[in-house]
Design brief:
Distance between the termini: 39 Å
CATH topology of the largest domain: Nucleoside Triphosphate Pyrophosphohydrolase
CATH architecture of the largest domain: Alpha-Beta Complex
Structural class: alpha+beta
Radius of gyration: 20 Å
CATH superfamily of the largest domain: Nucleoside Triphosphate Pyrophosphohydrolase
CATH class of the largest domain: Alpha Beta
Shape: globular
Helix content: 10-25%
Largest sheet: 9 strands, mixed
Order of helices and strands: EEEHEHEHEEEEEEHEEEHH
């Protein structure tokens, strides 16, 4: 296993950047990045963006310098490449990251994205009221998490999202009031029972909404869906305590930092 770095050739934010990658192991990549003093925010799902002035630090930490073409070949052959479009950012990749939902082997990618996945079979809504996030405790899912679920036949992804939100929290929003902030991509290989997903690529769309308060407190949460045991508003710190160990938290944190 080897970590590689290409020359600082890539302009962004008025600087030149290199890419730091591994030929097979993300744990090894994170270890070298930590030794070089790179911040976690420099990680983009399958590589680290390294400013020119930190190139030597990465080499000192064990990265092997190679050309840009050779590095692209390493990424292609490593199996670690995360598919994403311009404007998207990979926040996490977890093998069997939704083990509570399915026993099928799968890869979970958490992607920050301004694009809506119109074919997503389910959705989640991140709702904030000032410094508080709405979260629910569901009988069919462990722990606390943002409201959401599968869409019904004939519904658009947005329609399913606002219906699930109303059922699980009592909050009523218009579909047009939702902003796409990312998605979870669940990839299930051939030859296994994929339920409740499909073989291949599945998407769970994540929307966000920020409520304007008419008073000093957020509106009460009143679930009508019997599977929802409880719904609460959580402060940023409390929400993180309940969610930080879950792969989806990376997207909540990314969104919260920017809004």
């Amino acid at each position: 296993m080897t970590v590689f770095i290409d020359p600082p050739l890539w302009p962004a934010h008025g600087r030149l950047f290199s890419h730091l990658v591994s030929d097979r192991d993300l744990a090894e990549l994170h270890e070298v990045a930590a030794l070089a003093g790179l911040p976690e925010r420099a990680f983009d799902g399958d590589h680290y963006d390294v400013p020119e002035e930190r190139h030597a630090d990465c080499v000192a930490a064990g990265a092997v310098p190679i050309g840009a073409t050779e590095l692209a070949r390493v990424m292609r052959d490593s199996g670690l490449r995360v598919r994403k479009r311009k404007g998207e950012r990979s926040l996490a990749r977890v093998e069997n990251g939704l083990a509570a939902a399915t026993s099928a082997p799968h890869t979970l990618d958490v992607i920050a994205s301004p694009f809506e996945q119109a074919t997503a079979g389910a959705s989640v809504v991140l709702v904030r009221a000032e410094d508080r996030l709405a979260m629910v405790r569901n009988a069919s899912r462990p722990g606390w998490m943002p409201p959401g679920g599968k869409r019904d036949p004939g519904e658009s992804v947005r329609e399913g999202a606002v219906r699930e939100l109303a059922e699980e929290t009592g909050l009523v929003l218009e579909p047009a009031g939702l902003t796409p902030v990312g998605y979870e991509r669940i990839t299930v290989p051939e030859g296994v029972d994929p339920r409740p997903f499909d073989t291949g690529v599945n998407h769970l769309q994540v929307f966000a909404a920020v409520l304007e308060l008419s008073g000093s407190a957020p509106p009460p949460l009143r679930p009508s869906f019997e599977d929802v045991l409880e719904a609460r508003w959580f402060t940023r710190d409390a929400a993180e305590r309940h969610g930080a160990a879950q792969p989806w938290w990376a997207l909540v944190a990314w969104w919260w930092e920017r809004h």
